[in-house]
Amino acid sequence: MRKFFLEEVAKPSIALDAKVYKPYGAFEWKLPADKPARWTKPLGRNLCIFDLDNRPFEEDGMIFGQQPLSWNNATAIHGLSLGVLQHWLYAKIHGYSYYYVRTGDFEDRRASWKKPTVLKKLLLKHEACIFVDSDAIFNHLDLPFEWLLNYWDIDPKNNSLALAIDPKAEHNKDKKGKLYDNTGFIIAQNRPITFQMMDDWAECADDGGKHPECTEYRHVGWGRPSDQGGFGNFIRYDYADEVEELPCAEANGFPEDRSECIGTFIKHLWAGKQDLIKIAIGQQIPGMYLEMFHKQMLAEKSEYYLTEEQLMSPSWANAKTYLGASPLAVDPFYMAFVRIWGFSQGTGLGRTAIEEICEHPDPPRHHLFVDAPNMTGAAGGVISRPP
């Protein structure tokens, strides 16, 4: 039954560059007529989706509890756990990589400040990564994310980050009166400047930093978000040309909130974590499918579950990388190296160790490596950047 669901019920329904998405023959959304579709080949494992949390979620009714989740006991189901399960399932349907990262705590700030560091580490292995809060879901299981990248006109050469705007409300505005970008849904691309941005965001709330006032956002308060406040008041202004803002109606919110944000493609249920999310997931993963897929997710835990310690260890630096598996993963600086050394994609490099080949000219801490033993597909070598 799981195979039937993946291959028939929720299989990808349109081509990545299809001009129109019209689910059930009803409403329709069209790709920009005046823009080329840039994402035309499947990213596969080169695209990662991840959750992170400092809470164990190991009690019954939770995602890592002993008993499988079942609609027969719906009241006992932990709402946020359904969000995690849905992210894993969406990645499986479309062949993307999925990770769940169990983080530790900070002594002086909210654990959500772990987000930029975790994102940076995962992005080292992928062309693009998507962070999704556990109370946010992909509203259409059948819709490939590459199609959304085309729909939102995300440029693989320019847009380091893409985030949705928050609803129109005074408490959702930064100190300059601009609506926040919601950091509960982030699209990040593997570009040198993205890593620099993540470093700056991670350090924003440190004492003696570039933005002293950022320490005010170590913890949540009314009208004062935490990591989102640091990003919204400081980091996005430092990197204004690199941050793409997505429409709130399409990538944030939910209809029951009665705001302009209805979650057309990404439904973010900030006020429905224990009830509305059950209705949404119940419609997508009905009946016995919930229990079957939760059992499978638990059985495959070793394939996607990482602790913060594992992610920060040397073993992660040596872990498999998916960079180079997609034409979109070709870095212009890598191509310069290719010309100089006389190699090309599709040519085995014949090297047996990771060799540093050049320093990136922007911030000097960014380098490029070729890792021949871990070649993927037809790529001549795997490109990766060190932490």
From TrEMBL:
GO terms for molecular function: glycosyltransferase activity. Residues 110-241 form the Nucleotide-diphospho-sugar transferase domain. InterPro entries: Glyco_trans_34 (IPR008630), Nucl-diP-sugar_transferase (IPR005069), Nucleotide-diphossugar_trans (IPR029044). Pfam families: Nucleotid_trans. The keyword Protease does not apply. One of its GO terms (cellular component) is Golgi membrane. GO terms for biological process: protein N-linked glycosylation. Keywords: Glycosyltransferase, Transferase. Belongs to the glycosyltransferase 34 family. PANTHER family: ALPHA-1,6-MANNOSYLTRANSFERASE MNN11-RELATED, NUCLEOTIDE-DIPHOSPHO-SUGAR TRANSFERASE DOMAIN-CONTAINING PROTEIN. This is Nucleotide-diphospho-sugar transferase domain-containing protein. The lineage of its organism: Eukaryota, Fungi, Dikarya, Ascomycota, Pezizomycotina.
